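Sample 1 of the test manifest.
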Amino acid sequence: MKTTYLFILLFTGLATGNVAAETSTINELLNLYKQQGAATPNAQAGQRLWHKTFTGTVPFTERSCTSCHGDDLKRVGKHVKTNKIIKPMAPSVNPGRLSKTSKVEKWFKRNCKWTLDRECTATEKANILVYLKQL
Amino acid sequence: MRSILIVIGTLLVLAAVAMPLVWSDEDREAWLEYGRVSTGVALLSSPVYKEECGSCHMAYPPGLLPTATWQKIMSGLENHFGDNAELDNETQTKITEFLVSNSANQSNYRRSRRFAAVDDKSEASMRISETPYFIHEHDEIPSRLVTGNREVTSFSNCNACHRKAEQASFRERDILIPGHGKWDD
């Protein structure tokens, strides 16, 4: 009985610890973007950008965040070129998501350059982040 | 006569029992290592390498390309086979060191010795799948099983056919072409 109780305590401790870590990463990033001049984050604008199609060079003339991450962010995506499975983006089904500042920044840089042919602005990144966060 | 047989019999039983004790884990490791030396390339990775070079495709074992080719790949990550794989300087240096010190030229594995041999054309292409040895091993596979195969799409997907590619093993026994099966040549 006592052990069960201890286990419950331990697990709740771990679980809340995780959630806290993840929210703090997102907050840290949102603060950073704010310092860089981002407007108040807007999830709907983030959603629009996520689904927007940009033109690119052959063979990927149409490019979008969904090219690799898929339309349903609660399901796995697939890299357009290599076919490698990409784990779901929604933190609700994949709790490891958006939990490391340097990782998020690294992929924003690469994926914006590939998709939009330029880096995303602080406002755009903040918008996408709040859109993804609530999924 | 009978007592000699009993003695021999006892010795045999004892030997069988002692075998697993004498045949240690180290021997097993050495034996596995020998297996890889003859059928694969060195199984080497590192957490950074796996994280940074294994997110868009399998993390290719470093023994699949010579030093010069890895250096070229690592100095042009911003335009990496049509994708963007750029890294911060510190990580880039760390991974370059890892690849260079474990490249095909540095290895005594038989397969690596062969991957180390490149010509001007394959060096310029920077692909494992365009090295002379690779082409030699794969030139009989029809394109319908590769580019025309939705589950493979490109020779770059070693692990689509070589089910132990990520363990750096390319044994024929572990090859299974999706939608086709075993390869009998």
